[in-house]
Structures are given as structure tokens and as C-alpha cells.
Specification:
With about 120 residues, this protein is of the alpha+beta class. Helices cover about 35% and strands about 20% of the residues. Helix 3 crosses helix 4 (about 75-80). It is globular. Keywords: Methyltransferase, S-adenosyl-L-methionine, Transferase.
């Protein structure tokens, strides 16, 4: 599932465990097992990134914060993701296409659960 909007009455949990070997997918697995709805940020729909798309927890938080203020994913991504990550908007990257690996197609997960 892709996160398209933020709901005011939802609680958002940012999966912060990154281990590409032993614990890969652990946060998502635990959320699914607990019945918590999960979603990924719509990075593929708005950006082309030349590096892996694993983001630091603080960057995911900033993206959600910016999106909550501007309601524009592209603007939120561009404001929060550091320039060194090589992120370009889809319209900018249309002029310089690059191949993306299977690993790049997976985005960071953001889990949300309704507030109690």
C-alpha cells in the first residue's frame, strides 16, 4: 500500500530498524503480525533517486511533517531529503533516465494505526 494522504485521527509509526541481512523486513513483519496497517512513502511516484532509497528516521519524520503542512509529496521530499542523496523530481529526471535495481523499487515503510 502507498501512503497518499495523512489522516488527522491516525497514529503513524516509522519503522526504524535497518538491517539488510539478519533482520530484513522485521519491522514490517511485526506490524503485519500485530494487525497494524502498513504503507510506504510514494517515493517512486514522485522522485528518481540515484542511491538506495532507505531513509533515516528523521528524514521520514521531516517528510511527513512537510507533507502535513504543504499537502505536496514532491515538495515534502525535496525539502527533507538531503541533496547528497541525488533525488530529482520525476520531471527533472525524465531528461536523464537511469536504470533502477529491484532493491531501489522498495521504499521505506510507514506504518499507521488508528488512534485509540
Amino acid at each position: 500500500e502507498v501512503l497518499t494522504r495523512l489522516e488527522a485521527d491516525a497514529v503513524y509509526i516509522i519503522g526504524g530498524l535497518v538491517d539488510h541481512n539478519k533482520h530484513k523486513g522485521l519491522t514490517h513483519e511485526r506490524a503485519t503480525r500485530a494487525g497494524v496497517r502498513t504503507a510506504r512513502l510514494p517515493i517512486d511516484e514522485h522522485l528518481q533517486m540515484h542511491q538506495r532509497r532507505v531513509l533515516a528516521v528523521n528524514h521520514v519524520f521531516e517528510i511527513l511533517l512537510h507533507f502535513g503542512n504543504c499537502n505536496d509529496w514532491t515538495e515534502a521530499f525535496m525539502r527533507a531529503i538531503p541533496q547528497r542523496r541525488g533525488a530529482h523530481t520525476r520531471t527533472e529526471s525524465a531528461h536523464s533516465p537511469t536504470e533502477s535495481s529491484t532493491e531501489e523499487k522498495r521504499g521505506p515503510s510507514v506504518s499507521d494505526a488508528p488512534a485509540a
